[in-house]
Design brief:
Blueprint (H helix, E strand, L loop, with lengths): L3 H12 L4 H19 L6 H15 L24 E2 L2 H12 L8 H4 L24 H18 L16 H19 L5 E6 L20 E6 L2 H10 L2 H4 L5 H13 L1 H7 L8 E4 L2 E4 L1 H9 L10 E5 L5 E5 L8 E5 L1 H5 L8 H4 L5 E6 L2 E6 L14 E7 L9 E6 L15 H4 L2 H7 L6 E3 L8
Parallel strand pairs: 8-9
Antiparallel strand pairs: 1-3, 2-3, 4-5, 6-7, 9-10, 10-11, 11-12, 12-13
Length: 453
């Protein structure tokens, strides 16, 4: 390649007083634009048809009522990397476990979801951006493990200042993500094996009329690891396949999770209430509780109570409902206003309410957030639970820094602080009610932040 013209361009820019850094930034920006232009893709037949309609309408000076989305080609690795190519049988089993059939495929929102952090060295540099859609629950569940790694794995102190989460470089972000994903997959594989799925350049089977292609699943290779550290290093070496634009990173992680758990174990984890892991709701596929539980606990139990419960089905047949069997490192809290008003609150068991580390995925009226403490001993020393600090990240674009809450479980009952409020929503902020499912009667100080309702 003739580099003479490039050298002359650089010399001209140097003569024009541009700094060396500015020149590099300009070249990088041009390369990114060129890459994006070259990788706009008709990802599948539907996307391609919509893209063609969009270009045709644009030429005519008109725009369709629904603007189509161009999904970048998935980031691929060489087919010679050494993984196990997926078979039609494996793909069918995967599709049925997720959707209950072989004809549904992931939506645009799922396809574009990846593990993208906020800016390095920002107040939320530890936090993943979580857009709306079905993949949001998975992003926030993984966020729990990122906080676990940053606060309690790479550090051994009893109480770590929050500032330590807010000074992460891009390299530290990528390492934390790789460690967290590997940790989740290793736990799902019962601490004996982890499977990592990547997209390659080849297609490995010819689908039949009973299977709808998506140009992603058919190109998977499965990489097997028998040491957690080896899996984490492999993910770190290929981190762009999970965090890059167009990586389909959340789908790849979900595939890796199911194969690490194995489809056979997943069938045993589930009960008669849950035949597959994704539920169609309001035009999109959302995660059932079993997906969240396999991330949080390593086992895809469909329910959040402790152990097993008997259920009398129609005809007098007793069925077993599968709950959480062991206390895990991270926990789960749930509060839903509508369920409470109908006198049908979902009771989360102590296994999830009281994890080994003070980090909780919170489902608050269907919106996922993360609640955590920087004090490692919060749940192991009852004296720590008199007055303590909790931190909240809700994943919403409007949140620019971590919310600091102070919880008081002993001085006075929380309702006294709200007795003068006429608006029930202000008297009972949903976040506070979720916290009180763990610490009943606690008074909560938002320390100047506006409460989330």
């Amino acid at each position: 390649m003739d580099i003479g013209p490039k050298v002359q361009q650089v010399k001209r820019r140097v003569d024009s007083k541009l700094s060396y850094t500015e020149i590099l930034q300009e070249e990088v920006k041009k390369s990114q634009i060129k890459y994006q232009d070259n990788h706009k893709s008709d990802y599948d037949n539907k996307d391609g048809m919509e893209a063609s309609q969009f270009r045709s309408s644009k030429k005519q000076g008109q725009f369709p009522s629904t603007i189509p989305f161009l999904i970048p080609k998935p980031l691929t690795v060489s087919s010679n990397l050494g993984g196990l190519p997926i078979s039609l049988e494996m793909a069918v089993g995967l599709r049925k476990m997720l959707f209950g059939n072989t004809f549904h495929v992931f939506s645009y929102e799922w396809k574009k979801s990846c593990f993208k952090f906020h800016a390095p060295y920002s107040d939320l540099s530890y936090a993943l951006e979580a857009e709306k859609g079905g993949a949001r629950a998975i992003l926030m569940a993984v966020q729990v493990y990122i906080i676990k790694y940053c606060l309690f794995v790479r550090n051994r102190e009893e109480n770590i200042p929050l500032q330590g989460l807010c000074e992460m470089s891009q390299t530290e972000q990528e390492n934390a993500l790789a460690k967290s994903l590997g940790d989740i997959l290793w736990t799902a594989g019962e601490c004996r094996k982890a499977i990592v799925c990547l997209v390659t350049t080849d297609t490995y089977f010819t689908p039949n009329i009973d299977y709808k292609i998506d140009n992603l699943t058919e190109r998977l290779q499965l990489f097997e690891f028998f040491e957690k550290e080896a899996a984490q290093k492999f993910i770190c070496d290929h981190i762009q396949c999970f965090k890059g634009e167009g990586s389909h990173g959340v789908i790849l992680f979900l595939y890796s999770l199911l194969f690490s758990r194995t489809l056979e174990r997943l069938q045993k984890d589930l009960d008669f209430t849950t035949s597959h892991l994704l539920q169609f709701s309001l035009g999109n596929f959302i995660c059932r509780q079993a997906i969240l539980n396999v991330i949080l606990t390593g086992r895809a139990s469909p329910h959040v109570f402790n152990g097993f419960q008997k259920f009398d089905s129609e005809g007098g047949v007793q069925e077993l409902l599968h709950g959480v069997l062991a206390r895990s490192d991270v926990g789960y809290l749930r509060w839903n206003k509508e369920e409470v008003e109908r006198y049908r609150p979902l009771q989360v068991g102590s296994m999830l309410k009281t994890p080994k580390l003070p980090i909780w995925l919170c489902n608050i009226s269907g919106i996922y957030s993360v609640l955590f403490s920087t004090n490692r001993l919060l749940l192991s020393d009852w004296k720590m639970e008199h007055i303590f600090d909790l931190y909240l990240y809700n994943g919403q674009p409007s949140q620019k820094k971590t919310v600091h809450l102070t919880v008081d479980t002993h001085s006075h009952h929380w309702e006294k602080n709200h007795c003068e409020e006429s608006d029930p929503e202000k008297r009972f902020p949903s976040v506070e009610m979720a916290i009180r499912t763990k610490w009943e009667g606690a008074a909560i100080n938002w320390n100047g932040a506006v409460p989330f309702f």
